[in-house]
Amino acid sequence: MGHTRSKMNKNWLANLQASMRNGEKRFAVLLDPDKTPNGIELHNWLKEIEQSGASDILIGGSHLSSGNTEDLVKAAQKQTRLPVVLFPGSPEQVTEHADVLLFLSLVSGRNADLLIGRHVEAAPLIMKMDIETVATAYLLVGDGPLTTAAYITQTLPIPSAKPELAVATASAAVLLGMQAVYLDAGSGAGNSIPPEVVSAVRKAVDVPIIVGGGILNYEGIEKAWEAGADLVILGTVLEKVRDFSQLSIS
């Protein structure tokens, strides 16, 4: 039996901006279509996500080989009340069935395809969809080991010890009109983004900040929140255990 979709799923960016202004911190679970279970196992996992206190579900990944994004989006829409947010790694991962699309531009790199190229491919399709689209500055930050995102995008992340570079990059993106900043250590990152980097970016821009990658427990979420993150993303760690109790979240 499906859930009644919440009105809060509309105007997602406005709701996130309100959370930022009010100091209300949020966390989301990132589901990779390649690594998410099917059938009853997926049903149970979505139920657990909704009961965990998560505010959002993100769906997408750096590399899509076999997973079906649309099927996963539909399942999340049917089985939870949470906003379903697309975090696409390619135009093939775009579907109008989600509540929101993060229109990501990889501003930390100099790969023109991921700055604007793939966007040109996707734009005609997205313009025909009834889906909220949020222009999002996507920054990879970290020092290794090599993450999936860095390998697939063929770009170097901003060094963790250079918060001034993250600030300059995020500031440029906001001046260009980006509506949110996503700081990502990348899937499978050895370390999360240092609080100093998050804090520096928070002081520089007045748009919502999303932080993900390398966060392994509740303490990591708290540190990102305290540094200025408005929405913290959990991904790889929950792909491995699918058990919130081990993170001391619930």
Strand arrangement, major sheet: 1-2-3-4-5-6-7-8
β-strand percent reads: 15-25%
Tell me the helix content. Answer: 25-40%
Shape: globular
Low-confidence stretches: none
CATH topology-level name: TIM Barrel
Number of strands: 8
What's the CATH superfamily, by name? FMN-linked oxidoreductases
The whole-angstrom Rg is 17 Å
Based on secondary structure, the structural category is: alpha/beta
Biggest beta-sheet profile: 8 strands, parallel, barrel
Question: Can you characterise this structure?
Answer:
The chain has one domain: TIM Barrel, CATH 3.20.20. Helices cover 38% and strands 17% of the residues. The protein has 9 helices and 8 strands. The protein has helices at 12-22, 39-51, 69-79, 112-127, 148-153, 163-175, 195-204, 218-227, 236-241, and strands at residues 26-31, 56-59, 84-86, 100-106, 132-140, 180-184, 209-212, 231-234. Helix 2 links the parallel strand 1 (26-31) and strand 2. 45% of the residues are buried. The model has no long low-confidence stretch (mean pLDDT 92).
